[in-house]
Amino acid sequence: xxxxxxxxxxxxxxxxxxxxxxxxxxxxxxxxxxxxxxxxxxxxxxxxxxxxxxxxxxxxxxxxxxxxxxxxxxxxxxxxxxxxxxxxxxxxxxxxxxxxxxxxxxxxxxxxxxxxxxxxxxxxxxxxxxxxxxxxxxxxxxxxxxxxxxxxxxxxxxxxxxxxxxxxxxxxxxxxxxxxxxxxxxxxxxxxxxxxxxxxxxxxxxxxxxxxxxxxxxxxxxxxxxxxxxxxxxxxxxxxxxxxxxxxxxxxxxxxxxxxxxxxxxxxxxxxxxxxxxxxxxxxxxxxxxxxxxxxxxxxxxxxxxxxxxxxxxxxxxxxxxxxxxxxxxxxxxxxxxxxxxxxxxxxxxxxxxxxxxxxxxxxxxxxxxxxx
Length: 373
Hints:
hpI Integrase, Chain A; DNA polymerase, domain 1; elongated; three-stranded antiparallel sheet
């Protein structure tokens, strides 16, 4: 029964429902509805709904709450404060996976159930080969959905899913670290080489530089007199999504984070290796002021070196893992190592890049004297 003639009713489920007439069709009244937990809240929402309908505001907002429109606005606003590489990554996730599924769906109609089903489907059969995406990739896609949710809510758009509707467990990835014998083979093959890409491999093994940081390195970033190297740029190949396809381009940008802008001390040995190649104003890997080396090209050079040196295949990033592991084995202070690697916290360094060998574990175990059998 209506309360005080306001067309507001108490439902059996305990909620309050308010109705207002929108139009007539075939002699029948078409109603609009609002719902709330109390009579007062329902009355306020009903008054707002009637006003918006009467003034045509509902029609003017039509379509703006669909995921496609929300994602366009979000990307446009994000370009002002996010790196180009980050924007292109988000755009790729949107156009490859999210928009084909939800672009025409109102944000309020995307439920926890539909989003969970979507993420599970991506892990089972997503990707170009239909073999399923990795938990890490799906986790990043869901992160974009959470960002869209936050963006929509701040603009008064109703969203039907929560930020905690699914937990995606990432599988721990086995990290490749070169063994002492492999490092010896690598040094034997590279030492004394006049090839600049070989010099780059030695430099990464001695400093823990990322591939993109190495490719963006210029001779002016290195001071042999002060025996130091300054990291202030990175070179990345990013996707550009246009229409029905995508292409890639290489960009030179600031490093991964503010902490990645850093100065690394150089040893006498690496300074001696660098000296013959120094030429002001040029990229280290090419010796040219205009031409840089593409990260993919450097990766291919690295794999060729491993094959010729008789070392099992590895990704270029294994050099960084190996550097971090060697530093810990040598007794480096974790905070010092964290800053050398350009990490924002020591925990990242210890969790992701430090992989003690069995020999080091044994040395530490032998420090225990409580149970000397």
